[in-house]
Design a protein that fits this description.
Gamma carbonic anhydrase family protein; eight-stranded mixed β-sheet; 20 strands; UDP N-Acetylglucosamine Acyltransferase, domain 1; 173 residues; Trimer_LpxA-like_sf; 1 helix; Transf_Hexapept/Carb_Anhydrase; twelve-stranded parallel β-sheet; mainly beta; LbH_gamma_CA-like
Amino acid sequence: MPVHSFNGITPTVADDAFIAPGAQVIGRVTLGAGSSIWYNCVLRGDVQEIVVGERTNIQDGTIVHVTSHTHGTYIGNGCLIGHLAMVHGCTMEDHAFVGLGSIVMDACVIETDGMLAAGALLTPGKRIGRGQLWTGRPAVHIRDLKPEEIERNRAGCAGYVENARLHKLGVGG
């Protein structure tokens, strides 16, 4: 079973959320309706809370954690988090996007429709503004996203909601 109590606290998972086999969801974690946690992810809410909104997907191999006594992790509605990302003690507003293999560190904020590019490192306390694209190690703002890029990111999230539904039914591959 991929859902584990810690210190007497059991994750709260919406009925239609999908947690893939091999994923581990531990402690003070809340998963919203239509959200998906893919294969081999770890969401460890042991010393602070993790809140995942509705229709958000956290892709294969990603780690979501918190910082003891200082930073929970708050992920809004309709967010995309790419494969093998690390999201730690930060806030992602609705429709935020974190690319493949990226790292988001403590006290960071990614505002609505903000995007951290694949492989980027967002160092502690940085803030990606609404609709901005940041990239690099350490990440810096390179430009604002075009409306069609924002729409593509949002459409990708909708695709994951449907794919998760199929996986939950056992139809998807």
